[in-house]
Fold this protein.
Amino acid sequence: MTHCSLRAIGAAVLSMPLGVQFATPVWAQSQQAAQAIEEVVVTARKREESLQQVPLAISAFSALELETQGVQTLKDLTFLTPGITMIGAAEANIQPIIRGIVNLGGAEPNVATFLDGVYLANQSTINLSFMGVERIEVVKGPVSALYGRNAFAGAINYVSKKPTDEFEGRIQLTAGNDGQKTATGYLSGPLVPGKLRARLSAIYDDFNGSYKDQVNGLKAGAFEKKDVVLNLNFTPTDDLEISGTVYYGDDVFGINAATYLDNNCGGLIGFGPQATELRRYCGLVDTDARPVEVPPITSDSQVAGNNREVFSANLNITYDFGWGTVSSLTGFNDNKQLTFNDFTARRNGMPYFLNPGPGTVNLFQAFGGASDNDDFSEEIRISSAQDQRFRWTVGGFYFSADRLTSTFIGLDSNNIPAGRTISCAANICLFFLEPGGAPDPVRRSITNNQDKQISGFAGTDFDITDALTVNGELRYTDQTKDADIVSLTTTPVPAFRPLGGPFEAKYDFWDYRASAKYQVNDDVMVYVSYAKGTKGGDFNQRATIPSEIQYGPEKNKTAEVGAKTRWLDGRLQANVAVFRIEDIGLQVQGPSDNPAAVGLVTKNFGSTTSKGFEVELAALPTEGARFNLGVGYADPTYDDTAFDFGALTICQQIGPPICAADRIVQITTPQGPRTAFRLGGLQTPRTSKWQVSLAANFDGPLTGDWTWFAGADYRYESRWFFDQTNTSWVSSRNHVSARAGVETGAIKLTAFVDNLTNDDTPDAVGYNVRLNDLIGNFVVALPFQRRYGLTVSYAF
């Protein structure tokens, strides 16, 4: 099977990360903070503020905390953060979920991610390297009025370290099991003393993969990452500051680590006398049921896994006029990605029915795509001085993006006997097979999208008294999206637009946040807030009828009450937030109203309600000891206006208690009356109700200038359901990591172990697609197994 088109579109390169920088030695830091927990300054509201004074639920992690607790990726970060989980089949394809508000099918993310204030529009590149990071902030709840669209359920902010006025640097080397080899380092210092400073960070990270096929010896889950970050800071006068960041990543991720499970419920698939296999998987996802199989598709596909190249740059100019500041933030991102992954999780391929029958043949099947994403943004912000009773901010924002995506389906037809083809229903044959009946090995569709947005925003803070402050934020967004959806056949190669086009859609909406905080005393602040966020609409690439070409925005309305407190002379810090969320106009993926259509489409249908709380505790009971505890609870359930139109046939086979008779209802839709499955009261998929994070870190003197340190952390996530009908679920996660080491001044040695207990709770699950019947087996994406090793670093 040849894949020239894949190579032509670009055997892209890499982007993601793994590496953190080291600040003050752990023992020195604990001496400085022995009497009180250090104050954390955040920029979550686009200005520097003490974390304990912001009327928002925020979890913030400094570079030192990231190092101390062994955090290297966004997924690691979520293990320390209540109220957030991470779903995804690979590091390059992750989806943050905050407070149970999950993306059920929309093209736009629910959580917006930013690098130094610049929006990262491509979700496949949000998992950046932590090298050169000063702090990472996780903001919970809709902050669209501050950040713009898609800060719908919250936001994640990467804040870069500023270069230093003195020369300094660090080199760090790591060696671990499964071939892990990591080298990272940085240099920082003045280029023009007192005026211009620079910091250069770089990382090389190589890993052979945790999982091995015991039959053919091939491995899955490998990666190789090469990233560089340049930070510049220029202060020509006391009033003018110019800073910028350039990030380049060149990352390669191998075939996903996965296994498949045999379907065990639902009706039969196939057709005619060959309808012998079950359609669905029900019950607990059993990761021990079958060993990992790795198919030998590398030589066939020319690229296996995910190749990614990321370039991101920003420029921030701020001038202080005395009465206030004027700032300009310019951002540019260029992200290229090429994926081609096994879609079966089988070393010998997937069985296909032969025509004429009887009999089957095993064929390798892969699915992937190529994308090229470019976006530009500009924000102008004018803010009053912050030392007055009435404070204000006004500004404007412009965003423009161009995205070209291609979808690939690969099927190795070498094993099909001469004179026979694979059997399929007529409409599926037309979609997936060439005119002569041979399987289609190449590109199936191309979509070109443009996205332009203009926003205006304003915010005010007013101190009614020395203790009571009210805040209001408002943003208006005008958005235009264009899509040119082109499908391709293979022999010959004419392009055609199934529904005409290109298409244009316009959306405009208001987002807001209102809050009030009351400073009870120096150590206790309480607040209330109410906010609305919006996630933009988009187009359905697989639309076959006019009514399904596009879908509209989704809205989030959140009420929140919280408190931020310090006790015992600052040795204990306790923050709590209680919330209620209405998610309205859900963007839900499901079957088309056209019974002949292949694939799923997204529509707006129904709503959910999520209620819950988060508690974060930090304690310094004694010098050299710190404990952190986080508890998050969210109960996201469908309201009675939510229905599933694709589960009926399956449900009739499954029966009670999930598929009780009262859940089968007749409703009226724009296309007429339809029978549907009522989702009211069921938990939304891919959401864990409970998250518990516990971390303990210790350090102390050893001998001479040497000190020791040790720490461990534990994460619990309750079970989550795969599908809307709650018929299959993934068990609870229990993740444990630990580290210990010694250091003296410039030298540090650390031994570490991640996933100590080899917890194998899936990162994601789903059905693969078998091209002759559209239903295959249940595929389970697996996490890294136990990883351990030794890190040595030298600072100068």
About this structure: Residues 1-33, 426-439, 489-494 have pLDDT under 50 and may be disordered. The CA atoms of residues 651 and 659 lie 5 Å apart. The helical segments are 4-9, 26-32, 63-68, 74-78, 144-147, 298-301, 426-432, 648-654. The longest strand covers residues 390-411.
